[in-house]
Amino acid sequence: MSLTKITTKEFDQMVQAAAVVLNNNTDFINSLNVFPVPDGDTGTNMSLSLSSGESYVDKSTDDTVGGKASALAKGLLMGARGNSGVIMSQIFRGFAKDVEGKKDLDAKEFADAIIAGAKTAYNSVMKPTEGTILTVVRLAAKAGESKADDTDDIIKVMDAILNASKKALKETPDLLPVLKQVGVVDSGGQGLVFVFQAFDDVLNGRKIEDKGEHQPNSEKMNEMIDVEHHKSAQGKLNPEDIVYGYCTQIMVRIGKGKQVTQKFDYDTFYNYLAKLGDSLLVINDDEVVRVHVHTEHPGKVLSWGQQFGDLATVKVDNMRLQQESIMESDEKAQQNDKRAENEKEDHKKPRYLAIIAVVAGAGLEKLFRSLGVTNIISGGQTMNPSTQDIVDAVNKSNAKKAIVLPNNKNIFLAAEQAQGIVNIPMEVVHTKTIPQGLTAMFSFDPDSSFEKNQKQMDASLNTVKSGQVTTAVRDTKINGMDIKKGSYMGIIDGNIEVLGNSLDDAAVKMIKEMLDDDSENVTIIFGKNAKASDAKRVSDAALATDDELEVETHEGDQPVYPLIISVE
Asked: Which SUPFAM superfamilies does the annotation name (predicted)?
C-alpha cells in the first residue's frame, strides 16, 4: 500500500483519530506525571486541547488541506490547556502556516510542515528543555524530512516520523534526569507519540481497534443521559423516594470475551434490561453497545451484558448517596447563585482595570476577591483553563486593561497566548502558586498605574515561600526519598521536601523547613480534604516552634491539596 497525497479526507480522519486516541489514553498519560501527586493533568490537557482543534476542523467547510490545517491550529490555540496543550498548538500552528493555501500535501510538503511545526514549537518556549515533547517532535520531524528525500510515499514518511518519535520518547529519561530518577518517559512526548500513532494508523488504513473510534456517539449518549437525569428533578427529591437507586452504565464489546452465550439482538437485549429499572438507554453499532439504566440490581445488568460480550467500561453510582449530597449543598448552591448574580451586575460596571485570577475553591475565590480581584476563572490544579477561557474572561471584564494571575505555572503559556488575542491591553503576573497570587494582591495599589502595578506585583513574588501538603498516588523514588502510595508529602516551591506519617506531621515538618530568621507570617489554607481542626493543630504547632510568628488560617475549599501554606 502506498499514498502520494493527503487530501482533506485523510486529514479529517487523522485529526479525528488522534482526538479519540488521546481521549482513550488520558489516564495513562496523566500517570506519567513526575511527581506522585494527584494533579497529573498532561493527558487531560492534551486531550481537551486536541478535542477543541478537532471541533474546529469538523466545522470547517474549506476544501483544502491548508484550510483544514488552519482550522485545526485555530481550534488548538483557543482550546489549549496547560503547557503541553499550548506546545501542541504551536506544533500545528507551524504546520498550518507551512501548508497555507495548499489543496493537498505530497510527502515532501507533509515532512516540511512537520519540520515547521517543530521549529515553531521551539521558538514559542523561552527556555526549551530537551527530554520533553520538544525533543520528540524535533527528532520525529528530522526523520520525516530525511525519508521524504528518498520516497514520495507519505505512508513511509509517516512511518519514519512515528518510529523516530517512539525512539526519542524512549530516550527522554537520558536527557532529563528527573525522568530517569522517577522511572518514566516524558508525558507530553508520550501524548505526541499517540497523535503520530493515530496519523500513521489512518494513513496505513488500519482500524484503531479497542481505541474508541467505533464506539456509539458518546456525545449523543451523554446528552440522552442528561435528559433522563433532569427528568428526575433531583433537587427536590427525597433520597428515600428514589425507586431505582443505582445509575448503571456499561459498554459491551459485542461477541468478544469468554462468557459470551448469546448472539446480539437489540430487542432481546433491550427487553430484559427494561424489566430491571427505568431511564433505560441502549445504543449500538456493529461492534459495541452502550447501556444506561437506573436499577436496584446493577449486578444483573453486568451479568446480562457479559452474555453478549466482554465489558469494556463499567460505571455504577449510588444515586441515593448522591441525592443526600445534593440536598446538603442545596443551600450553599443558592448562596452561590445569589453571589453570581451580584457579580454579574458588578461586571456590567465599566472599570479601568480588571484583575483576573485562576482559582479553584469557593473559599479561595472569596479570599482573592476580598483583596481586590475583580474576576475569577474557575480552575487550577487538574483543571487548567484554556486560552479561550482566559480570552473570554478578559473580554467580558468590561475593563480597559487587565492583569491575569495564573497561580499555576502550567497556565503560563495559555495566558501568554491570550495576550495576543484579547481586545484590551493585558499583562500576566507569573504567579506559580496560590500563595504567590495572594502576595501579588497584597502589593497591588489601586491608585497606581497599570504598568507600575504589574511590575510591583511581579517583584513581590520572591518574598513568599509556598508549601502544599498532599498524598502520593503511587510508589516512587525521588530526591533520595522512598515514597510510598498514600504517604503524606510536603512540597515546597515545587519540590517534594518532606514526608510525614499524617497530614499534621507533614505540614509541621514542611513549615519548619520553610521558616528562616526573617520569617514573620504563616498562612494556612485548608481545602476540601481537610478540616478547620486540622488547620488549628498545625497553627498551634507552628506557634510552638516560634511564638513570635503571626499565624492565620482560612478555608479555601481547594481540591487536590488539603493544606496550602505560605511563609513570608
From this structure: DhaL-like (SSF101473)
